[in-house]
Amino acid sequence: MSPEVVDDRALAGELAAAAGRLLLEVRSGSGLAGKELGDAGDLRSNDFLLARLAADRPGDLVLSEESADDKRRLAASRVWIVDPLDGTREYRAPGHSDWAVHVALWSAGELIAGAVALPALEVTYVDDGIPIPVTAGLLPSPDDDRPRVVVSGSRPPVFSDAVAEAVGGVLTPLGSAGAKAMAVVRGEAAAYVHAGGQYEWDSAAPVAVARAHGLWCGRIDGSPLVYNNDDTYLPDLIICRPELVDTIVGVTRAHA
Length: 256
Prior knowledge:
It comes from Gordonia pseudamarae. The protein contains 7 helices and 10 strands. It is α/β, with parallel strands linked by helices.
């Protein structure tokens, strides 16, 4: 592995973790609540990430949820895809840990670095495949040993029940896309399925990390996830243990 890739991975992890700490400061010390808190967190985290990337990787382009889309990225060789605060609703809700910061790097058609910070749990996952001990759970302790399938609490796919039944599991709602993906990385869930609409920044970093940990990532019709497109809408996603791919895609493909 080249030193450049190692450096990019280290930078992704550093930036995600630092932005997460900044968000915790805003959450605890700003005196804001509700929409004002979410807006302030989005802005502060985005400003921080853009400034650091401009300083540390001045030749790269950035695609961020919170910034205007610079179409020069379509001809660029390296594009950072970031979500400064994934799970704004959960961030605004006291006591929630299911929100995240996403930092990923795309180059030559591939995601080559990625990091997902779960600031409320003080942990950052990087696409190095190295397990991180799980100290606090994203999900409540299970009532039984059935595999859990995490889904959006507000926009669960219409096929959610069918997927859970097919794998002999139970549906579990959770907040941000990053939190749901990391629940699978952490071994708390067997799969994450989504079809309620997303954009590239929602899944790029989680997918980079999940793949590095041996998980399968793709669309609900079984096709690959492709990033740095002109249209950034990437509405559906599966992240799951490899042995469940055929079963889950067999269910979801009919709804693709």
